Amino acid sequence: MRALDSHLLRTGVASFWNYSGRLVGLGWTFALIHTLGIGSYGQYAVAVATAAIVNAGIDNAFYVRSLRLDEARYERERCARVLFGSVVAVVGVAAFTASFVVGFAVIVAAGELLFNTWKSHLLREGRPDVAMRYDAVRQITSIVLGATYLYAVEAPSLSTAAALYLLPYLVVAAACLRYVPGRTPAAPGGPKEFALLSFEALAAALYAQGDVVVIGWVAGDEVAGYYSVALVAALAISTIGQNYANTYLEKIRAVGGHVSGAPALRDVVKVGLLTGGSMAVIGVGILLWGGADYTGHITLILSLFVVARAINHSFIVVLFVQKRDALRVKATVAVAVAKLAALALLVGPLGGYGAAVACVVCEAALLFVYHRAVHGAASSSNREPLHDRATR
User: Fold this and answer.
1) Is the distance from CB of 257 to CB of 383 less than 8 angstroms?
2) Residue 39 needs a FRET pair 20 to 30 A away by CA distance; which of 9, 28, 158, 169 works?
3) How far is CA 227 from CA 146, 214, 234, in A?
4) Are 317 and 126 in contact (CB under 8 A)?
């Protein structure tokens, strides 16, 4: 029980820092809209969305492999990650003056890659609570710098505010330079593995955010806005499951990916029910408050999605360490395609309700696939220790 308490405590602390950063981020959104207008904020939002997509494509292979490698190989790939991120950052700086969206997106993608590099040793040790604390500090520092400028001058500009927002990444880059001397850089696997892991991240981004785009296209911006509020809350709450799973990373890696190092299935289910219940409480609160019943109903439907997604995070961490990348990519791509097809059929007549149902069904399908892969009888050969393959 004491070990469980330790994992739950670290999960709670990590989630606290995660949500603290998100809360301050809402203030940043207000500051941008209040001082620069909705048009400038829209430009900024496009740049941030682009940055997330770019970062997913260039960093996922490094991220996944950093969780499962032995220390010697990890340090070599960490060295390469720093060098690669530095080159991408230089490209972003060069592009910033020519195109704000492109330049800002590339710099943020590179900055997050470098920050993920610095935090990777904490995640390897099963300490998402410490990693998320530094993440919150970086975000809050960036926002304070940018917001101070917005309200300190008479005619602020988006480019200057964004440049100040980016300054903390310089500190991150400087901190990462110590990982380079004395090490021979190594690529994150072969071209096939790099492409596989990068494609997985892009498919996951499409799966997570594609419904908002489809709803806006089919049902209009207002419906998309109501739905987006509920979806953002669902994705944020479900990260509790990811934080919980990450506290077991060191144990899972120590036994070569065997499920004996993973959290017990009953504990994973408890975390899923806790997060889903929290989402349901939010939905009930919205309905009782009044004025946004559409969002409240969608929130209640998505509470089932949160249960499944929080549980899936634990299974995905095990599959990361087991190097079962092809299985994850096939499952993610298949469910992304199925979800988009379902949205095309359901959003027209049912709007956000149809999209929410599609989310629940697709995440439940992933739950079935991942549970069978990790805990099913047919997966026993894949759950044997993988020490001999860990350094490849």
Assistant:
1) yes
2) 169
3) 29, 11, 11
4) no
Burial class (CB within 10 angstroms; exposed 0-12, middle 13-18, buried 19+) of 97 = exposed
Residue in the block written with tokens 């940018």: 146
Measured CA to CA, the distance from residue 310 to residue 272 in angstroms comes to 5
Report the alpha-carbon distance of residue 368 to residue 137 in Å, rounded. Answer: 37
Chain-centroid distance of CA 232 in Å reads 12
Q: Which structure tokens are listed for 333?
A: 């791509």
Give residue 44's identity as a one-letter amino acid code: Y
pTM above 0.85, yes or no: no
Tell me the one-letter amino acid at 143: I
- Select from 278, 300, 313 the least CA-distant residue to 230: 300
